Amino acid sequence: MSRALHCALVHHPVKNRDGDVVASAITNVDVHDLARSARTFGLTGYWVVSPIAAQRLLVERILEHWRTGSGSRRVPERTLALSICRPIESVDAALDAIAAEAGARPELWITAAKPPPGKSVISWDTARARLEGEGAPVLILFGTAHGLHPLLTDRADAVLPPIEGHGYNHLSVRAAAAITLDRLRGTR
Amino acid sequence: MSRALHCALVHHPVKNRDGDVVASAITNVDVHDLARSARTFGLTGYWVVSPIAAQRLLVERILEHWRTGSGSRRVPERTLALSICRPIESVDAALDAIAAEAGARPELWITAAKPPPGKSVISWDTARARLEGEGAPVLILFGTAHGLHPLLTDRADAVLPPIEGHGYNHLSVRAAAAITLDRLRGTR
Predict the structure, then answer these.
(1) What are the start-end ranges of the E strands in chain B?
(2) pTM for this entry
(3) Residue A171 to residue B123, Cβ atoms within 8 A
(4) Contact residues on chain B for A33, CB-CB shorter than 8 A
(5) What is the ipTM of this complex?
(6) Mean pLDDT per 10-residue run, chain B (188 residues)?
């Protein structure tokens, strides 16, 4: 038994290069890649967060193609991955939906290439151990553009460490999410 | 001191759904994502393998935009990642180029969602340990489409284990490469 783990790819509120709040565009490959990584590591849900209805509709169309359309007949493994993916208007709406399903308020964990100032970072071992056993669900946020805005990071119950490279720290969100989920849930 | 590590994203010879040899198309996001992951984990080179000259020219144009074009002024971190990326016509040509630069024939390591029959798989710990210390360079192959063809896997000096999920094993090559490099070279 382990805690239910969810992840969200956040397109708002995220930062632009100057640190201002923006809504970024949803990318098809992000929908697929994070769904496949989330499914691989046994996550319960993958939420694609955007306040823009037309952007969420784009996700619905992608999902429809792969869940019941011609994509599902051509690549059935993709149907399985995308079955846990859901577009939603905000992180709060995702927290509410998870709470309604699980009967317990989820913890909010965040990821960042640079941890936000004033927040302490838990170790990977601690994070992994916390996910084992029983407890409330956990929702991990991944940011697009230049990262999660303080409106979200200020509310985090836990901050995961950055993925340290050899003097370079600019992974794609697809790569960072894959590595994060492997570190938290992977077996070797 | 550790051994020089290279990776290659192979577009030929790879398998289609029926196991036949095909040349797959190069994808812009793969060029970027694997370069960023390779740079993060201190790789010496990232080779994009295609026998199709027009496809390699596409890679050259992407690289030019980010190395010296407007992309390099807008996102300088991307220039650093793509500086280790080179298109090349075959895995053998990549092996020759690495050998010429390093003065030693590289070992050929392969990755696979399902290890090829008849090949023994080394553990992640063994692979990680083998990369430490001195020795010949190592070239790790990642396959596109339905994976590396036996023409390549038959020649492997080492086979890395599949990335085991929770009953699902269909990661994107971008995610699989990120996790592989993290398991081999990541620090926590």
Answers:
(1) 5-10, 14-15, 21-22, 45-49, 85-88, 107-110, 138-143, 158-159
(2) 0.97
(3) no
(4) 172, 174-175
(5) 0.96
(6) 94 96 98 98 98 98 92 89 97 98 97 91 97 95 97 97 89 98 94
